[in-house]
Design goal:
By secondary structure, this protein is an all-alpha fold. It has a single domain, classed as Orthogonal Bundle (MetI-like fold), CATH 1.10.3720. About 70% of the residues lie in helices and about 0% in strands. It has 13 helices and two strands; from the N terminus they run H-E-E-H-H-H-H-H-H-H-H-H-H-H-H. A two-stranded antiparallel sheet has the order 1-2. Strand 1 and strand 2 form a beta hairpin. It is flat, with a radius of gyration of 29 Å.
Length: about 325
């Protein structure tokens, strides 16, 4: 008896999934729109950083061939007293220009946020105008004010005080440059603080008034804690800007005739500039830039740690 073979039904072949699906097209469109930023950053941001780190291990005058010297450039700058003077000057002028600036900016922001102020928009523009003014123009004006026969010394003499050598004195130069920095960035920080103040609900202040809290208590126990994210941001940005101080000391000391290499006002960036474009030592200049980069990271991390210890990071904590 013949065996009957039953044929299995043929299974349908699954359709091949197209490569350009709707999801992939959406992702490609999104990456295309944001790609200009990453391309420009790679060309003008990432590449210079990597090349600077690479150059710091070579001896180069920008004309001849590059010669590998290892960590010799770092040994040269760390053994140079002028480098450490520039580092000290940068920290001192950073503190002298940043700390008073933040305090005054906060007070100005509180004043601008006050209901008693009838010309808020006008004052906001006036306080922000120094930030959009040319740094060179500002420095030239302040160079005249802080000259030996300038307005500041004239005012000190009328008050019965002796003249201060703002052009050549160790502390005089730092006071003049720090004043320029404070005047330029105070309004910018005040506007940021003002945006933070306006984000605080008014109901909290009304409840505090009902409980009998004074204005000082409201500032300490309500305003400052709720402004902590803005304070952290402003302090971080101001610290980074202070470490990169260049135009003010360079133009101010150049105007006074003492030159940008005077130890009273030389900063890390002016030291870097002199090494590269005056002395022709691009290797040591690159090593200085790397040291400045490391210092900026360390101070930024230190700011974040201090802010966290002061209560800026409350994530994961229960009330």
């Amino acid at each position: 008896m013949a065996d009957t073979v039953t044929a299995k039904p043929s299974q349908p072949i699954p359709a091949k999934r197209p490569f350009w699906t709707e999801s992939r097209r959406s992702k490609l469109t999104a990456y295309t729109f944001i790609s200009p930023f990453f391309i420009l950053f790679a060309i003008f941001g990432l590449y210079p950083i990597l090349f600077t780190i690479y150059l710091s291990f070579f001896k180069w005058d920008a004309l001849g061939p590059m010669k590998y010297v290892g960590f010799k450039n770092y040994e040269l700058i760390t053994s140079d007293p002028t480098f450490w003077i520039s580092f000290t000057n940068t920290l001192l002028m950073g503190l002298m220009g940043t700390v008073p600036q933040l305090i005054v900016a906060l007070l100005v922001a509180v004043m601008l946020n006050s209901a008693l102020n009838k010309f808020k928009n006008t004052f906001r523009i006036l306080y922000f105008m120094p930030n959009i003014t040319s740094i060179v123009a500002v420095t030239l004006v302040f160079s005249t004010m802080f000259g030996n026969n300038g307005m500041v010394n004239w005012l000190l003499n009328n008050l019965g005080m002796e003249s201060v050598p703002f052009n050549s004195g160790w502390w005089g130069v730092k006071i003049a440059i720090s004043t320029m920095v404070m005047w330029r960035w105070m309004g910018y920080n005040a506007i940021i603080f003002l945006s933070g103040l306006q984000s605080i609900p008014t109901d909290i202040y009304e409840a505090a008034k009902i409980d009998g809290a004074s204005r000082g208590q409201q500032l300490i126990y309500i305003t400052l804690p709720l402004l902590r994210p803005f304070i952290i941001f402003v302090t971080l940005v101001s610290t980074i800007g202070a470490l990169q101080l260049f135009t003010e000391p360079y133009v101010f000391l150049g105007q006074s005739g003492t030159g940008s290499t005077r130890q009273e006002g030389v900063t890390m960036v002016t030291y870097l500039y002199n090494e590269a474009f005056k002395n022709g030592f691009f290797g040591t200049a690159a090593a200085t830039a790397v040291m400045l980069f490391i210092a900026t990271i360390l101070f930024s991390v230190l700011n974040m740690m201090l802010s966290s210890r002061m209560g800026g990071d409350t994530g994961g904590k229960k009330a």
